[in-house]
Amino acid sequence: MNIMSNNKIIENAIKEWAQSKKAFISLYTYAWEIEEWRKLTGVHQVKRMLEIGSGSGWFLATAVALGFAEEGVGVDPAISEDGTSIDEIRTTESVIKRLGLSDRVHFRICTFEDFLRTALPKDEKYDLLVFRNTLHHLYPRSKQSPVERELLDKCIEDLRSALGLLNAPGYLYIMEMTRPSKLYAVTYNLYRTWRGVPTINWDSKRTPFEWRLILKKAGFMWIGVTRLPAHYPLLLNIPGGHILAKLLSCQFLAAACALKP
Questions:
Q1: 207, 250 in Cβ contact below 8 A?
Q2: What is the pLDDT of residues 6-28, one digit of tens each?
Q3: Lower CB density within 10 Å: C or N end of the chain?
């Protein structure tokens, strides 16, 4: 099966999944994001990639199918009420098998904390650690100072432990949303309600500057950050639409490198 056939298969699978989730996600979305990370770091390919909170696994599968990673491992607890079920992952695995990538894309059904507990003693090593829209779920920002300190300490501790999973050099790939203005937050949630999708808890988000400080304390060197365009097909398909899509977006992509002694 040639590359174009593979891409068409995975493109159709992602489209079907996105429609079921009412999400504006496509193969192009992931390809664009990967290319932006490459521009930030100058790193065009990694050998082993680990994605925490990989969900249904489509980004992981795309990264391997497009040659960004030679091998990928996805970690997700697969709790349906949180958005991902075992059935969704099994569907992705069936597509991966059809693409002939079963020996290069793997899933672990567990939490990040449990993965660290089992992987570190085994000295599992990766070249890239990916958190896509995951960190704010694991360590949500809190307005209550004691809770916030506890969450920050836990986040720094876990990320510092994750250094043991990385080869030298080892990289971080982070996609998150930052806190917008109150007007934007209210308007955007009204739009999501109209579309019939869950609203966003903006208070749980952290800014790129806040993540930069956290990563520094955890032992990572900040490389750079860029704003990602909003995934609105109508905008992305018109001339100059990417510029407007970036202005209307609160999503950002950040890159960092592990500091090894």
A1: no
A2: 788 999 999 999 888 888 888 98
A3: C
pLDDT, tens digit (0-9, with 9 covering 90-100), for 119-163:
998 999 999 999 999 999 999 999 999 999 999 999 999 999 999
User: Omega of the bond prior to 169 within 30 degrees of 0, cis?
Assistant: yes
The one-letter amino acid code at 200 reads I
CATH number of this structure's domain 3-177+206-229+251-258: 3.40.50.150
Q: Within a 10 A sphere around the Cβ of 200, how many other Cβ atoms?
A: 16
Q: Is the pTM of this model over 0.70?
A: yes
Q: How far apart are CA 62 and CA 103, in angstroms?
A: 15
- Token representation of residue 69: 């990673």
Q: What pLDDT is stored for residue 41 in this prediction? A: 96
What is the percent of the chain where pLDDT is above 70? Answer: 93
| Cβ-contact 213, 188 below 8 angstroms | no
Closest CA to 169 of 37, 38, 73, 259: 259
DSSP state of 248: T
> pLDDT tens-digit profile of 175-188?
999 999 999 999 98
- 3-state DSSP assignment of residue 69: strand
Give residue limits of the domains in the chain.
Answer: 3-177+206-229+251-258
